[in-house]
Amino acid sequence: MDTEHNAGADRGLLLTRLGVGLIQGLALFGLSEAAERKVWPVSDRPLFIALVVLALAAGPVILSGLGSLKRRALIVWSVVALSVVAAVGWMEGYRGLDGFETIPSPLVMVAVLVGLFIAHSLIVAAARDRARIAGYPTYFDVSWKHGVQLVLALAFTGIFWAVLGIGAALFGMIGVKAFAQVIGERWFAIPSSALAFAVAVHLTDVRLGLIQGVRTVALTLLGWLLPLLAGLTLAFLLALPFTGLEPLWKTGSAAMILVGAGASLILLINAAYQDGGREKPLPVALRSAMRLGGLLLLPLTVLAAYALWLRIGQYGLTIERIIAVAGVVVGACYAVGYAIAVVLPGPVMRRLEPTNVATSIVGLVVLLALLSPLADPVRLSVDNQVSRLLAGKVKPADFDFDYLRFGSGQMGTRALDRLSKAGGDIGRLAREAKARTSRSYDAALGAEQTAEDAKVYPAGKALPEAFKARWKGLASGMCRKELPACEAFLLDLNGDGREEVLLSAGGPAVLFEQDAKGVWARQGEINPAVVCAKDDPWVAFRAGRAQVRPSRWNEIDLNGARWTVQPDQTPCLDVTLTVTTTPPTVEEGGKAGGKAK
Asked: pTM of the prediction?
């Protein structure tokens, strides 16, 4: 009887989940149709985005809660969670960001899903232990179960579509195109994807052995990567006194890399620790790596915070930097807690348990702040950038007015309206930005370096005056202020007695040639193919060791398309240059290499 009862309960749960998946799929299909036909509620942008976010989030919350929470708790939690999600969606629609008229921005959607994952795990764990604060093993079991479920459900949905694709290919071989046409229609694709996801959640929920097996294997493999990452991080920190911090700042993304390294350490430490309830002690290598990783988090977080402080001081707040600040705040909580866990006596890293629980709550609060008007990254970045402009920290000519016009929604538009009423260059440039219908190419890429900023090789030479006169059009998009200075190499590549210019921003170089009329134009890219060179090939360029040699193989011309032989082997002492020819760009007036308007 118990077996029959359980089977009946499982069937009932499956049917309920299928119903939820079908309703979610139909809701998303209806919203997609409204967006396609541009009918209500698309006209009410905040409402429409709120409905899209709500439809996307409702499925995972209810599907997972059906197997974990009692009916009353599930209803209360779903109402609270989805009300907050709808408010976040309304806020996203109110921002009015360009390019996201009918969908939420990826950053917001990821933040919503991460926040729901954290909150849902905390709620389910507390319900399982029937306590406001659950035991750490319960938090561990619930959170990793949900994580593995999500990955497997997404994988199942992807494989589901791969199988349908195989079926379409099979029918296509015999001339039956109807199957491929049907599965490509939105009325089929969206509901069926939601149903496949619901089935996957149910299968992984009723087969706990599958989840536990996958989790055990994944955690074991991840845990043994901890000694490697801890060793690499220690070597990096020990090398800093010899290299200095300047190479870090030149990357332009030091803070994000350091935050990512810290997050990886946290993940691997927890993979090795698991729920802390092992019957046998961990191997010495893992215990040592956990202690080392717990200590290394602190200097990584301090370096990330310092890098952000410098960057914000130089260039002000942006959406990305505000998100990075949030990451540093959460990382600092982990770093301090893990350092304390290392130095306190007792079982290895046992104090990380309260740190993980407390920091998950801190992270949830930070996410809610970022998604609300309280710490809205768009508002904060607009206010900060405008205040820097008005305070004279940024010259009007260097200020990105197009960011206000096209990149920051209603808040940027309102700020631009205020600036357009100002006098002088600020008001003029603001009015010009308001009149534009699309973001200008140069403004989209940020402030550009000048010809005087470029380093010219061989040493002692200078860029041709005609090239310098057209620098803004030729080097646009390559040489930006936040990157290291561009390098220009002068050499005669075609044997016409005149030097061409190779311009590099740290990667492949762009080849520029001057024609018979004295006009410089882009000709293609040159990529050094390094097979067994002992140093960066650009070092040879800077030292004047580059030699121009004729190609062994001629090109093949096929109706104007040129094919070039790429050598299979490159001698160790040679640098092979491969030129990929591209047509010159055309500026106003018919000249090459101009600025896009």
From this structure: 0.74
